[in-house]
Amino acid sequence: MKLELAAYKGKKICVAVSGGRDSMALLHYLNAVKEEYGIILSALNCDHKMRKSSARDSQFVKDWCRERDVPLFAFDADVHLKSEAEAREWRRNCYFKASKNVDFIATAHHLNDNAETVLFNLARGSALGGLTGITDASITNGDGSKLNLIHPLISVTREEINAYIAENNVPYVDDETNFSDAYTRNYIRINVLPALENAVPDAAKAIYRFSRLAAEDEKFFKSEIARRGILKFYGDTAFITYCEKPLFTRAVIAAVKKFFRKTDYTAAQIDILYNLQFAANGKRFEFLGLSAYREKDGISITKTVSNEEVSEVLFSDYICCKSNIYGGQFLQITKINSENASFSDNKALHFDLEAIPENAIIRHMKCGDKFTKFGGGTKSLGDFFTDRKIPVRIRKRIPLIVDGNEVLAVCGVEISDKIKVTDKTLKTGLIICDISNE
To answer: 7 exposed, middle or buried (CB, 10 Å; 0-12, 13-18, 19+)?
Structure first.
């Protein structure tokens, strides 16, 4: 077994180790050649505590690393992980924690694992992106931290790994769940792939070559999306410009997976999103806790937020408190005095403070709201938003000052004619609410 490690000379590599044969083979190999390549080696172990033997396996890894002076990042689940999905998310967080101290996190996925992944995704009806198999990746977390994942064994067969273990007397422990074909991936590994290899010799290697070609194609599509600026992020919203379906589909998947970290989307949902661009402006589609809106130049996708999640606030209480945030939106309402009388901002709205009723509240849009725009003329708030070309995706997040269903101010947009400043105004108020980044 010979691995290509020239690209990792002098790098800090941390091997994710379960104690099983594949991860132990990788850890043993890198430990043997670390001086040759100047690799600063460490390991990490995640005890999910979902199997009776997990503590035994973790202790085996700790003992091996201690005996060979290999630094180990050991993580024990302090919560009850109920599913494989929860375990993956917890393990992912462990990887991010360890990655702060190293250049790369290395996993022991090999050529046969890659074939299993491709076959599994193909059977589920995956698009080309799901047939790229297991590839190196650079992942950014929500806090800005980065995880660089590599797979040094990805072109190595299971037989080559077994031979290396036998030749070098590499110790390991067996995960008993690997021998049960009750799990789909295990069934593919135990039954499907061997049968395919029997029918088509070296099928796993052929699948590996195919997955690398698919990965090259996907790389091109991603570069084209970036070159044309098809996918952009604004705050908590992803915006996808209208484009050809192959690019549009990949942009949607990238937005959903990277920005919103959702992975259980379906092909039918992707098709609906694509067809949304041919619907009328403002049309909406909700899926996976997200809302997609058809806008003038593309489709916006944002997290679905219910107005019920944000409490109503008395106007008089808000203007007296020190907070300038309402429903996650910056909203400053003040009385003009000698300190801010000269305030000048095209986003600021001046209003007659004494024209605000005592029971007025601050809240978001509701059915039945009406608005008397500045200069006169009353219409439904929805129609006003349409006239002002306010995107549907942000309408329910704009703070309003209301008296019942009478909207007195659409903060950041316009005040009602009913609270305008006149020559009789004694106290002038100021509303600052920048919704331009929405």
So the answer is: exposed
What's the rounded Cα separation, in Å, for the pair 111 and 114? 5
- Bridge partner residues of 75 (DSSP): 46
Overall pTM surpassing 0.85 (yes/no):
no
Burial of 181 (0-12, 13-18, 19+ CB in 10 A): middle
C-alpha to C-alpha distances, 270 to 256, 264, 267, 358, nearest whole angstrom: 10, 11, 5, 48
* pLDDT at position 372 over 50: yes
Residues 6+ apart with CB under 8 A from 85: none
Give residue 76's Cα distance to chain centre. 25
**Residue 388: both structure tokens together:** 């002002």
Distance, in Å, from the CA atom of 94 to the CA atom of 270, rounded to the nearest integer, reads: 31
Tokens linked to 111: 């050529």
> How far from the centroid of its chain's Cα atoms is residue 294's Cα?
21
State pLDDT tens for residues 222-251. Answer: 999 999 999 988 767 888 998 999 999 999
Please state whether beta strands 406-410 and 400-403 pair in parallel, antiparallel, or not at all (unpaired): antiparallel
| Assigned token pair, 165 | 């273990």
CB–CB of 284/239 below 8 Å?
no
Q: What is the pLDDT of residues 375-432, one digit of tens each?
A: 889 999 999 999 998 888 788 889 999 999 999 999 999 999 999 999 999 999 999 8
Smallest CA-to-CA distance from 149 within 139, 157, 141 is with 139
DSSP label at 257? I
